[in-house]
Design brief:
Number of strands: 10
Distance between the termini: 38 Å
Strand content: 15-25%
Strand order of the largest sheet: 1-2-5-6
Structural class: alpha/beta
Radius of gyration: 23 Å
Helix content: 25-40%
Largest sheet: 4 strands, mixed
Low-confidence stretches: 2-11, 138-145, 294-298, 324-329
Order of helices and strands: EEHEEEHEHEHEHEEHHH
Shape: globular
Number of helices: 8
Length: 329
């Protein structure tokens, strides 16, 4: 989870990462190892002697806060109800990198019980988590990003590295394939409203423009009529960095895409279906218990289902009306 903030007294933007649960903590630990390799930061938060505190290159300040002693502390919070996974961070290679107050754990997990985690154990640490988050964000509002679809290419194993070197056009086309998306949905069944592409490595603007022009001519990739130029492009000439000994191969170029597409409604529809199944089973086998929870005030499930339906409805409305004649007042 990322929160984008903007400081009151400067134009520099900061990204704050909040890693929740076992999966979140493990992914976060791997991500911060990669961030340190990207910016040349050592596991103890120090930089090599050839880089001075407050130097000209401060790109790392987006993800790290720099102390007066020259140590770089991640703008991140790790949260889990039970301490096992985060204890691995506390005792791991990067144990000196994180601020101890930003590693928050409880004493026991919720045992896969939503009500137990939401209403009892979770409540015990939620205030502490919010307090730490407010300190990191400095209480500055952040822009809201609605359901972005993340895609990354190329995803090549180390075994195939010497046989596959994809061009800019190849990795751009791959970004629009369902297999490379982080959310399971078919973008060919929806329409794009906007796309943001960040290229890294051996990439030149001419190749990017040609790749985007080819994308716009494909019938399988459609955009809404009221946003014909919905592409934002950034190029970082530093090639992607990989973790030594990892499964991913080091490539010459890569691209990460965030897109806003109506196809995301498929994911919400699947979640709606699973929600209805759980509610049906609960009503069948736990009827009296569900009624008891309802009268005790634990009746947020209906509101959640309503909100999920609105997400699907919004995408359907956009998909329907973007092909109809429209008029601006």
């Amino acid at each position: 989870m990322l929160l984008v903030t903007e400081e009151c007294y400067s134009l520099q933007r900061e990204c704050i990462s909040i890693h929740v649960g076992q999966a979140g903590a493990q992914i976060g630990n791997a991500c911060w190892e990669l961030y340190c390799l990207e910016h040349g930061i050592q596991p103890d938060g120090q930089m090599p002697s050839d880089k001075t505190v407050g130097g000209g290159d401060d790109s790392f300040n987006t993800f790290f806060s720099e102390t007066g002693a020259g140590k770089h502390v991640p703008r991140a919070i790790f949260v889990d109800l039970e301490p096992t996974v985060i204890d691995e961070v506390r005792t791991g290679t990067y144990r000196q990198l994180f601020h101890p107050e930003q590693l928050i754990t409880g004493k026991e997990d919720a045992a896969n019980n939503y009500a137990r985690g939401h209403y009892t154990i979770g409540k015990e640490i939620i205030d502490l988590v919010l307090d730490r988050t407010r300190k990191l964000t400095n209480l500055v509002p952040y822009p809201r990003i609605h359901f972005p679809l993340a895609t990354y290419a190329p995803v090549i194993s180390a075994e195939k590295a010497y046989h596959e070197q994809l061009s800019v056009a190849d990795i751009t086309n791959t970004c629009f394939e369902p297999a490379n998306q982080m959310v399971k949905c078919d973008p060919r069944h929806g329409k794009y409203m906007a796309c943001c592409l960040l290229y890294r490595g051996d990439v030149v603007p001419k190749d990017v423009n040609s790749a985007i022009a080819a994308i716009k001519t494909k019938r399988t990739i459609q955009f809404v009529d009221w946003c014909p130029t919905g592409f934002k492009v950034g190029i970082n000439y530093q090639p992607p960095t990989v973790v030594p000994g990892g499964d991913l191969a080091k490539v010459q170029r890569a691209v990460c895409m965030l897109s806003n597409t109506t196809a995301i409604a498929e994911a919400w529809a699947r979640l709606d279906h699973k929600f209805d199944l759980i509610r049906t089973l609960a009503s069948t086998f736990l009827g009296n218990f569900v009624c008891l929870l309802h009268f005790r005030g634990v009746s947020h499930y209906s509101g959640c289902r309503y909100n999920m339906s609105l997400c699907v409805l919004d995408s359907v409305i956009i998909l329907k009306y973007c092909t109809m004649p429209y008029h601006f007042m």
